[in-house]
Design brief:
Layout: E1 8-13, E2 16-21, H1 27-41, E3 51-62, H2 64-75, E4 80-89, E5 99-106, E6 111-114, E7 117-124, E8 129-132, E9 136-142, E10 145-148, E11 158-163, E12 167-170, E13 173-175, E14 189-194, E15 197-202, H3 206-217
Parallel strand pairs: 2-3, 3-4, 5-7, 6-8, 7-9, 8-10, 9-11, 10-12
Antiparallel strand pairs: 1-2, 11-14, 12-13, 14-15
Domain Septum formation inhibitor MinC C-terminal: 104-195
GO biological process, one term: division septum assembly
Protein name: Probable septum site-determining protein MinC
């Protein structure tokens, strides 16, 4: 069997190996190449003493079953000890109005889109993008672009532990924050629309904003 594709890269580091798995190719094709490499073409580095392994699945969203399929192949090599798996979990179907939690790192060129409200545990790096139809809450640094309420919901908000974005967008309103946001004190801020203008406030004022909005709507 000859595998010509390069969907699986194995990189040696100081204290083990990193498996870099392509996040664009079909998953079954990825598994096939991974299985071939650990069973045939890379026996020289996959035999001998215990080797610690880190697995990186990029921006591919995987289910628990898919993650286990990858781990099963590597566990078949007795000397490989899995230390970490970096992947974005596939979101489950959620009822309207619920908050979905995802974790990872959004790197330059990567886009995470979610329908509904999102709690993201991790950083959004420069060049990375999160888009949501609802609210976006980031427990981490927002240094890329975030678009909340993208289907026209002007009541949506964007919050981050460190608010230093390249661009914010709520519904159709776009704001490019000033450079001095980098020096804002380290506390969670959120962006919202007030009379069609984007504003920034501390996260503890979000409940009051929502209460005032409900009063205004007569809820």
């Amino acid at each position: 069997m000859t595998v010509k594709s390069k969907h699986v890269r194995i990189k040696g580091i100081k204290d083990g190996l990193v498996f870099l798995l392509d996040d664009k190719c079909p998953f079954e094709e990825l598994l096939g190449e991974l299985r071939y490499k650990v069973e045939h073409s890379h026996q020289n580095i996959l035999t001998g003493p215990i080797v610690h392994v880190d697995i990186k699945l990029g921006s591919r969203q995987v289910t628990e079953e898919e993650k286990e399929a990858v781990l099963d192949i590597l566990r078949g090599q007795g000397n490989l000890l899995i230390r970490s798996v970096e992947a974005m979990e596939a979101p489950q179907e959620e009822p309207a109005g619920s908050l979905t939690t995802l974790s990872g790192i959004i790197r330059s060129g990567q886009v995470l889109h979610h329908k509904g409200d999102l709690l993201f545990l991790g950083d959004v790096n420069p060049g990375g993008t999160i888009t949501c139809t609802g609210d976006i809450f980031i427990l981490g640094a927002l240094r890329g672009m975030a678009h909340a309420g993208m289907e026209g919901n002007e009541a949506a908000v964007i919050a981050a532990s460190l608010m230093a974005p390249t661009q914010l967008r709520i519904a159709e309103v776009i704001s490019r924050p000033p450079d001095e946001w980098e020096t804002r004190e380290s506390s969670m801020d959120f962006a919202f629309l007030s009379d069609g203008v984007m504003q920034i406030d501390k996260i503890h004022n979000l409940i009051k904003l929502r209460q005032d909005l409900n009063v205004f709507k007569g809820v």
